[in-house]
Amino acid sequence: MLSFAAALLVMALAGAGADNNGLKRMYVLDCGRLIAKDQSRWTPGVNAGQQRELSNSCYLFKHERGTLLWETGVPDSVTDQKGGVTSPNGAVVWFRDKTLVSQLESLRVKPNDITHVAMSHSHADHTGNVKMFAKSKILLQKLEHEFAMNMTPKPLTDDQNVQILSGDHDVFGDGSVTILSTQGHTPGHQSLLVKLPKTGALILTGDLVHFQYMWDNKIVPSFNFNKEQSLASIDRVIKLVAEHKAQLWIGHDKDITARINRAPKFYE
Ligand SMILES: [Zn+2]
User: Fold this and answer.
1) How many CB atoms sit inside 10 A of residue 84's CB?
2) CA–CA dist 84, 97 (Å, integer)
3) From the CA of 122, how far away is ligand 1's center (Å)?
4) What does the mean pLDDT of the chain come to?
5) How far does the centroid of ligand 1 lie from the alpha carbon of residue 68, in Å?
6) Hey, which residues does 69 pair with through a beta bridge?
7) What distance in angstroms lies between residue 17's CA and the mean position of ligand 1's atoms?
8) Cα 143 to ligand 1 centre (Å)
9) 82 C-alpha to center of ligand 1: Å?
10) Cβ(98)–Cβ(119) under 8 Å?
11) What is the pTM of this model?
12) pLDDT at 30 over 90
């Protein structure tokens, strides 16, 4: 039998850990594949002229207080094009083996059930299906919203339910899912810190970096919005990985994605 003081200590430790939050499950969804003719687009001067396949994932979080979809992937309409679809900037060919909507359906989730949607940034391989979530609150940094609404075509509709963020944001108010401001790839790029009760802490990078090699060598693509901000954001996430003993999941790195269980499997 525990003494009263020991019982208090046990309760305090449980409260301090990641095991005492309302996050129930994380599902990883297949949100397309990208084939690049020249991978040095991301790694200036390295592996020039070499083809590379990039993975692309979306993540569904089931929390006591709602549901968050992180990333929406390449457009579902790409699924019908077996030869793929060249991206608007011509840099990659998109493929989609399964639609996002069918993967949600197989988890018995309809777009209107999703309370919150957030994307790392506004590029089309991340925002391809955001218009489907007409009722969800879309969590976007102020600078990213301005950037997105100046694009042609706009990734969002004019009447989507956008919540403007300025900096980090605790999505469900218990520290289980936190949007991190990691500017640089685009004006308001964001990453996601996740604390799962059993799996522990993860950081989903978005396009902070695209491949492990870029993380290991602090490489910034030449087409990023701001190089200094990009490097500062990498440094910020290096510190957070250490502080939270977090795993780093780089969504476009095919080798990392191959080791991750996709839905219907899930992480708790
Ligand atoms: Zn991307």
Assistant:
1) 17
2) 10
3) 9
4) 93
5) 19
6) 60, 117
7) 32
8) 18
9) 21
10) no
11) 0.92
12) yes
Report CA(185)–ligand 1 centroid distance (Å): 10
Question: How far, in Å, is the centroid of ligand 1 from the Cα of 135?
Answer: 24
What residues have their beta carbon closer than 5 A to ion ligand 1?
A: 125, 207
| Cα–Cα distance measured from residue 33 to residue 237, given in angstroms and rounded to the nearest whole number | 25
Cα(128) to centroid of ligand 1, in Å? 11
Residue 162 tokens, joined: 């956008």
Q: For residues 74, 191, 212 and 244, what is the CA-based torsion angle, rounded to 10 degrees?
A: -140
What is the DSSP code string of the chain? ---HHHHHHHHHHHHHSTTSSSEEEEEEEEEEEEEES-GGGTSTTSSTT--EEEEEEEEEEEETTEEEEE--BS-GGGGG-TT-EE-TTSSEEEE-SS-HHHHHHHTT--GGG--EEE-S-SSHHHHTTGGG-SSSEEEEEHHHHHHHHTSSS-SS-TT--EEEESS-EESSSSSSEEEEE-TTSSTT-EEEEEEETTTEEEEE-TTS-SSHHHHHHT---TTSS-HHHHHHHHHHHHHHHHHHT-EEE-TT-HHHHHTSPPTTS-B-
For residue range 161-178, list pLDDT tens digits in order: 999 999 999 999 999 999
Please, are residues 119 and 70 in contact by the beta-carbon 8 Å criterion?
A: yes
